[in-house]
Amino acid sequence: MWEDIPWATPKPHWPYERFRNMGFESGQMLGDVSIVAYDGETIAGFTMTGKRQSRDGYTWMTGVGRDYRGRGLATAIKVEALSRAKANGLRAMLTTNDEPNKAMREVNAKLGYQMLPAHVQLEKPLLH
Ligand SMILES: CC(C)(COP(=O)(O)OP(=O)(O)OC[C@H]1O[C@@H](n2cnc3c(N)ncnc32)[C@H](O)[C@@H]1OP(=O)(O)O)[C@@H](O)C(=O)NCCC(=O)NCCS
User: Ligand 1 within 6 A of 100 CB?
Assistant: First the structure.
């Protein structure tokens, strides 16, 4: 799913170990607010949530397998995550989307996420 993210700037694919460390060994993941949707033994989609300050949650990544897209699965697992976040007493859920990622931005917009003031990254290439 990572290779399908329309990044604003190219990002190398994370090795599995880095992903695993972030999720399971950092102690930062909110397991109650992270969801995996299965189709039998196949992972159809997932959303992973981490801690953000003391009372917020932060969606690290949401992904739906290519064969399962366009059927409301990302929306369904995010609705479930939002409902669990509320039940767990969180104040808000935050996330970051790449500007070209129309699909994820649309899902979040429909769920009522509001844009915070923009944070624009700049680069001055140093040509050799
Ligand atoms: C983004 C992603 C999770 C969406 O999953 P999905 O299950 O197909 O999304 P949904 O079916 O819930 O879509 C809900 C709404 O989002 C919008 N949407 C979804 N895919 C879209 C696309 N490719 N282009 C434009 N809008 C899109 C639509 O408004 C859709 O509502 P509709 O079906 O009523 O038209 C999926 O495309 C994906 O895994 N992409 C690669 C990974 C990624 O980019 N993850 C996010 C960054 S971490």
Answer: no
Q: Is the pLDDT of residue 23 over 90?
A: no
Atom of ligand 1 nearest to the CA of 76: 12
Torsions phi, psi for 78 (to 5 deg): -75, -35
- Could you tell me the two tokens for 3? 């290779």
57 touches ligand 1 (CB under 6 Å): no
User: Is the shortest distance between the CB of 108 and ligand 1 below 6 Å?
Assistant: no
pLDDT for 118? 84
Helix (H) or strand (E) holding 4: none
Residues 45, 73 contacting (CB under 8 angstroms)? yes
What domains can you pick out in the chain, each with its CATH number? 14-110 (3.40.630.30)
CA-based angle 2:4:10, to the nearest 5?
A: 75
pTM of the model: 0.91
74-101 confidence digits (pLDDT tens): 999 999 999 999 999 999 999 999 999 9
